[in-house]
Specification:
With 124 residues, the chain is α+β, with helices and mostly antiparallel strands. It has three helices and six strands. Strands 1-2-3-4 form a four-stranded antiparallel sheet, covered by helices on one side. A two-stranded antiparallel sheet has the order 5-6. Strand 3 and strand 4 form a beta hairpin. The termini are far apart.
Length: 124
C-alpha cells in the first residue's frame, strides 16, 4: 500500500470541504424553492370587523400558480396572494411588505384597506 503523501492528504481534505460546502449551500436553496413541504394551515376569523379566510386552493387557475395552491378571502372576495422564493407571502394589496403567512397577508391587507372594500382582481 503506497504511503499517503502530504499532497494527497490536502487534496482529499479540500475535496471533503468542498462537498460539505455544496451540501450546506444547496439545502437552503431547495427549501426556498418551495420544497420544504410546509403548507400553511386553514384559517377563518374576524379581524378588525372583516372576515378573513384562507385554505388550500380547491381549483386551478392563476392563483394556484403563484399562491402555492393556497387561496385567501377578505369578506368573501379573493385576495390574490403569492409565495416568494424565501417562503414569505405578499398580496396585491400589500405587495411590497412580505409577511410570514397567508393569515398575516390577509391581516396586512385589511390594515391597508382601512375599511374600503376589496375589489375583485380580474384574472387575465
Amino acid at each position: 500500500m503506497p504511503d499517503i503523501t502530504r499532497r494527497r492528504a490536502l487534496t482529499a481534505a479540500a475535496a471533503v470541504a468542498a462537498t460539505a460546502s455544496v451540501v450546506t449551500l444547496a439545502a437552503p436553496a431547495a427549501s426556498a424553492a418551495g420544497h420544504d413541504h410546509t403548507a400553511p394551515t386553514s384559517f377563518d376569523e374576524v379581524y378588525k370587523g372583516r372576515r378573513i379566510q384562507g385554505r388550500p386552493a380547491s381549483g386551478g387557475g392563476h392563483h394556484h400558480e403563484h399562491g402555492g395552491g393556497y387561496e385567501v378571502f377578505v369578506d368573501g372576495v379573493q385576495l390574490h396572494v403569492m409565495r416568494n422564493a424565501d417562503g414569505s407571502w405578499i398580496s396585491v394589496v400589500s405587495h411590497y411588505d412580505p409577511v410570514a403567512t397567508p393569515r398575516a397577508a390577509a391581516r396586512a391587507a385589511v390594515d391597508e384597506l382601512q375599511g374600503a372594500p376589496l375589489l375583485p382582481f380580474p384574472a387575465n
